[in-house]
């Protein structure tokens, strides 16, 4: 089995001006495609070619000699989630179930937003910030480079890419502004809520 670039659920200009067509064209069409091409080349004619993406991530993470496989498999998984977490005119109110769980686990929506944006802002260098399920509770975390919460036995339900290629064309070095706009104007809360299943 070889992996393929998933189509976006929206036009490449649909998230503008929060995320420009140029950024999406480069990020989805070039960066994400490169991770997939690299992964397919790494696993061709190996037993991993018949594994699920999640299994490849977990197996390659255990073996440091498989760093190339892990990085490209994990980035493919991360981006698959990232594209789904956004929609045109996103942000705003969230489904009642998700809102109630966030308030229960963080104390308030404002505290959750602050923790999520702080995780993305303080991730040194390239990486991601996440909202995940861990033992039935919601937690915010950050990971470096390609890593994601799957390797810590968590289920990510929301992820934001803080590699420079995700925001530098539109925001230059203003990562906090990018994260605030992502949170307030792009997140598809209905999709995030569906990941609670």
Which key terms come to mind for this protein?
single chain; 197 residues; mainly alpha; Helix Hairpins; minor pseudopilin epsh fold; 2 domains; three-stranded antiparallel beta sheet; 8 helices; 3 strands
Oligomerization state of this entry? single chain
> Regions with pLDDT < 50 over 5+ consecutive residues?
none
Secondary-structure element string: HHHHHEEEHHH
Q: Structural class of the secondary structure composition? A: mainly alpha
CA(first)-CA(last) distance = 27 Å
Largest sheet, in brief, is: 3 strands, antiparallel
Any chance you could write out the topology, listing elements then pairs?
Blueprint: H1 21-43, H2 53-62, H3 67-84, H4 96-106, H5 109-122, E1 127-134, E2 137-144, E3 155-161, H6 168-171, H7 175-185, H8 189-194
Antiparallel strand pairs: 1-2, 1-3
Helix pairs in contact: 1-3, 2-3, 5-7
Would you mind describing this structure in some detail?
The protein is globular. The chain folds into 2 domains: 21-84, Orthogonal Bundle (Helix Hairpins); 96-194, Iron/manganese superoxide dismutase, C-terminal domain (minor pseudopilin epsh fold, 3-Layer(bab) Sandwich), CATH 3.55.40.20. The chain has a 3-stranded antiparallel beta sheet. It is built from 8 helices and 3 strands; from the N terminus they run αααααβββααα. The protein is mainly alpha-helical. Helix 1 runs antiparallel to helix 3 (67-84). A hairpin with a 2-residue loop joins strand 1 (127-134) and strand 2 (137-144).
